[in-house]
Amino acid sequence: MIIIMGYFGLQAYSQAKKYEQSTQKLVMDRDVSKQAEYQAKAWLEKLSLGHYANEKRLVREEIIKEKELHGSEAKRYTLYVMGLLAMILMVSLVTGLRFFTFFGTLSALVVLYFGLFTPLLTVTIHKELEYIGDVVLSFESKSLLGSVVKLWEGGDIVVALVILLFSVLVPLIKTLSLMFVAVVMESRFAHGIVRFFKVIGKWSMLDVFVVAVLLVYLTGSGSEVSHAEVQVGLYFFLAYVIVSMLVSLSADKMLENLRL
Q1: Dihedral Cα 28, 216, 151, 127, nearest 10 deg
Q2: Number of structural domains, the chain?
Q3: Taking the alpha carbons of 61, 62, 68, 71 in that order, is the dihedral positive or negative?
Q4: I want to staple 232 with a disulfide (CB 3.0 to 4.6 A). Which of 78, 184, 202, 220 is the partner?
Q5: What are the per-10-residue average pLDDT scores of the chain (260 residues)?
């Protein structure tokens, strides 16, 4: 099931990237010059009483259909991933805490991977111009890691490092460590790992807070009107957070039972 979940995750990632590309095409077709040309042809189409077809409108409508299709497909495959994830957790829980901890962390790694690389948010900066209509000034679509790179290149090094630490490195180390605990649960080192993560448990939601700050930062960075749209990468990351919390509790309970 984990392999199938990974396949569906790849499909969701592929469709999300195609959705991003379709949106980029629409954005490029709505700069000042092309939007003015579009409006001129639209008026010509109206004045000709249907004898003249605005080919730019037809092309734009086709791209919009492709965009909507890719968006719905990305959400559909993401829903498949979440369904399989729930099934894996339920089956593993029935077989025991050790199985739940191991396969839960393995599933968490899968959704974390797609949460880091799949587009997280698209932000469009646009402005309404008289006689021309809605003109797009800029467009951004970034994954979590892509946002870190952008912030670093833009000079926001502290913000980039904070996001990299708490939303990439700490989750990755935590997940791999809990998987190691499930394998060598009898060792004293395993108890030390769980105790360490219990100490930092108060910070378990900090990765969510960091991502929330990132979303606010990206949507508020434009001087004009912003249109922000959440992408499936956010759902993958939130799924990781939930599974990670459940697995941490499972590992703690597993080692308590071992001491008894």
Answers
A1: 30
A2: 1
A3: negative
A4: 78
A5: 90 92 77 61 63 66 86 93 90 80 87 89 70 66 80 80 79 79 65 60 53 56 61 88 82 67
> Residue 119's Cα: distance from chain center in Å?
5
115 is in which domain, residue-wise? 2-259
Q: Cα–Cα distances in Å, from 170 out to 12, 62, 147, 178, 252? A: 25, 43, 17, 12, 18
Please, are residues 238 and 80 in contact by the beta-carbon 8 Å criterion?
no
**In whole angstroms, how far apart are CA 28 and each of 21, 38, 49, 154, 236?**
11, 12, 29, 23, 29
What is the model's pLDDT at position 42? 63
Sequence-distant (≥ 6) Cβ neighbours of residue 96 within 8 angstroms: none
β-strands 225-230, 133-142 pairing: unpaired
Q: What is the reported pTM?
A: 0.78
